[in-house]
């Protein structure tokens, strides 16, 4: 099962819960940190030996011997990444989306592709947990290619947990579009509710089963409950605000370090997610 | 006019609540909500919409089913998971980046490109001044283009109104929308929290500001959750030339103010509000000195 843990609003506890669910699974699990702009899952594990793979994307390389500056590639590029001047064709790497169109299109075979680094993926093993953490290089604008590279490590025979980027736009949809179940972590505040509604619309548009976890459940009002009831979204877990959880988190300790008694409830969350997955298959 | 961008790297550190307070404290300002994915500023500043404009950005592929013979060539060429992996081949809007490759190379000429409706943006009047904000469609690209458009509109508005301040609520992370938010601004205020994740994400934002040679300041929200970590974060920032302009204590009144749809600055007995007033005085003093 591919279980994505997301939230429209940032800082609701996505990473904390993803790590805790991985620890509560007591089975081989892959934890993929797809929040590549600000990956934090690894902070909750002791440092061990990691393996690092650099991730690259293909960008065009123009052979000046062959290029006639005909301008076809510049006209084609949807991102204005190629400027064709009378005597020179210039690439703006930051704008290129690596679609490969210019290379296929060039009538003079003047364009080939070279690999350009955008970030890396670190891999660790912690007991039964294989952690993959994608890290976008600072100054790089586009995260989806790196997210796709992290997701290529998925192994279908394992429980896969995806720690998602915040928001509801392309980084999120790249992460969750093929997830089996999406859990949205929220908090019972007007911000939490507003962003939850947008996230639910996004997940439902992708036809993924959705469930909710309410964090800091006692700091706010009942509006999340009312909303979930009206939309028939199951609430799998509620975690009240406790200063010792906040303090443990601040040090890089996990939810289960602060509240070991939560393990059975988290295992139950995984079972409920599996049930949603099976129901969706039938 | 001074343009101040509020960002955080990590989400949920209190960026929007703080921006709403600063906007209320600034005597005259224009406000832009550039966190278009999870736009929340309007929940605190109750804007009345004066103008709405559709936002169209880029294109999306559409397959003409009557012409398509399911050859699968488009699926092989697409690098964005924009076409379903198995027949019948359909465009997956969540993946399509509008590159035009499938449309150009389709042997049946069955694919065309259509403009992509990304949402609407608004020019409004809020309780703290004129405001630019948006509602983007589900799954639309969180393009830096919208952020750039907003800042340009907001600057124009600030100049028209001769407003001394432009306050921008920025997006989380450090990718495309963040880069579009910070470049060319007068100063960036980073809102962080005394946690390992807050520290980690702040360091990456400082790297980003250095990359673009920009001036930044930090403030630490809920600093008293872990005073030792607050000290560490402050030291790290100051070693990088980023000074701390405020420490805001944990205060349950922030949530109770949010439930009343008001910035916490309105609650006279709030300890967070008092700290935010000091923070604004510091920012004001720093940015007003030529």
Topology:
The complex is a heterodimer of chains A (282) and B (290).
Chain A: E1 2-6, H1 14-24, E2 29-33, E3 51-62, H2 72-76, E4 82-85, E5 88-91, H3 101-105, E6 111-126, E7 129-136, H4 144-151, E8 159-163, H5 170-176, E9 181-186, H6 190-205, E10 210-215, H7 223-231, E11 235-239, H8 243-251, H9 255-258, H10 263-281
Parallel strand pairs in A: 1-8, 1-9, 2-7, 2-8, 9-10, 10-11
Antiparallel strand pairs in A: 3-6, 4-5, 6-7
Helix pairs in contact in A: 1-10, 4-5
Chain B: E1 2-7, H1 15-25, E2 29-33, H2 42-45, E3 48-63, H3 73-77, H4 101-105, E4 111-126, E5 129-136, H5 144-160, E6 165-169, H6 176-182, E7 187-192, H7 196-211, E8 216-221, H8 227-239, E9 243-248, H9 253-259, H10 271-288
Parallel strand pairs in B: 1-6, 1-7, 2-5, 2-6, 7-8, 8-9
Antiparallel strand pairs in B: 3-4, 4-5
Helix pairs in contact in B: 1-10, 5-6, 7-8
What does this structure look like?
The complex is a heterodimer of chains A (282) and B (290). Chain A is α/β, with parallel strands linked by helices and 282 residues long. Chain A folds into 2 domains: 2-55 and 119-281, Rossmann fold, CATH 3.40.50; 57-117, 2-Layer Sandwich (Alpha-Beta Plaits). Helix content of chain A is 33%, strand content 27%. Chain A has helices at 14-24, 72-76, 101-105, 144-151, 170-176, 190-205, 223-231, 243-251, 255-258, 263-281; strands at residues 2-6, 29-33, 51-62, 82-85, 88-91, 111-126, 129-136, 159-163, 181-186, 210-215, 235-239. In chain A, strand 9 (181-186), helix 6 and strand 10 (210-215) form a beta-alpha-beta unit. The radius of gyration of chain A is 22 Å and the shape is elongated. With 290 residues, chain B is an alpha/beta fold. Chain B has 2 domains: 2-46 and 129-288, Rossmann fold (3-Layer(aba) Sandwich), CATH 3.40.50.300; 57-117, Alpha-Beta Plaits (2-Layer Sandwich), CATH 3.30.70. Chain B has helices at residues 15-25, 42-45, 73-77, 101-105, 144-160, 176-182, 196-211, 227-239, 253-259, 271-288, and strands spanning 2-7, 29-33, 48-63, 111-126, 129-136, 165-169, 187-192, 216-221, 243-248. In chain B, strands 3-4-5-2-6-1-7-8-9 form a 9-stranded mixed sheet, sandwiched between helices. In chain B, strand 7, helix 7 (196-211) and strand 8 form a beta-alpha-beta unit. In chain B, helix 1 crosses helix 10 (271-288), helix 5 (144-160) packs parallel to helix 6 (176-182) and helix 7 runs parallel beside helix 8. Classes of the chains: A alpha/beta (282), B alpha/beta (290). Chains A and B meet through helix 3, helix 5, helix 6 and helix 8 of A and helix 4, helix 6, helix 7 and helix 9 of B.
